Amino acid sequence: MSMRLSNRAIYGLRAIFDLAYHSAGEPTQVREIAERAQVPVRFLEQIFLDLKRAGLVESKRGPRGGYRLVVEPGALTLAKVFAALEDLPELPDALGDASEESAARVPDVVCQEIFGKMIDLLSEVTIADLIERGEELGFSRQCYQGFTYVI
């Protein structure tokens, strides 16, 4: 058991945030996201496959294709993103029978409570919260503005 988030989870969160922050709902190519999120393209392509399987993003082929977030940022929690990419922390079942009463179970119970609070916290923070934080910090958004035709 590791309490450390994997690079996969961190990069996946960066990619989801990038889509929500910079793409304005438009499909965005992996190479653009990889550049802004500072993630290797090949690694990010694999991450997007898992995010797509989890129903968090969809893909569109072609020159104007790419990935697009399909869950509203306010409804997408960090717990959902991390769960799509790796197992969330939990104690293994092999630690003993839950009905067994002994002092040896105290650390198990406390760790389980801590893990539960971590999951609760990850379930409270949304991608919309991250967007708000980015705006508060003054980071520019690189949303596609389209073309303006004047005749």
TrEMBL record:
<dbReference type="InterPro" id="IPR036390">
    <property type="entry name" value="WH_DNA-bd_sf"/>
</dbReference>
<dbReference type="InterPro" id="IPR030489">
    <property type="entry name" value="TR_Rrf2-type_CS"/>
</dbReference>
<keyword id="KW-0238">DNA-binding</keyword>
<dbReference type="InterPro" id="IPR036388">
    <property type="entry name" value="WH-like_DNA-bd_sf"/>
</dbReference>
<dbReference type="GO" id="GO:0003700">
    <property type="term" value="F:DNA-binding transcription factor activity"/>
</dbReference>
<protein>
    <submittedName>
        <fullName>Rrf2 family transcriptional regulator</fullName>
    </submittedName>
</protein>
<dbReference type="Pfam" id="PF02082">
    <property type="entry name" value="Rrf2"/>
</dbReference>
<dbReference type="InterPro" id="IPR000944">
    <property type="entry name" value="Tscrpt_reg_Rrf2"/>
</dbReference>
<dbReference type="GO" id="GO:0005829">
    <property type="term" value="C:cytosol"/>
</dbReference>
<dbReference type="GO" id="GO:0003677">
    <property type="term" value="F:DNA binding"/>
</dbReference>
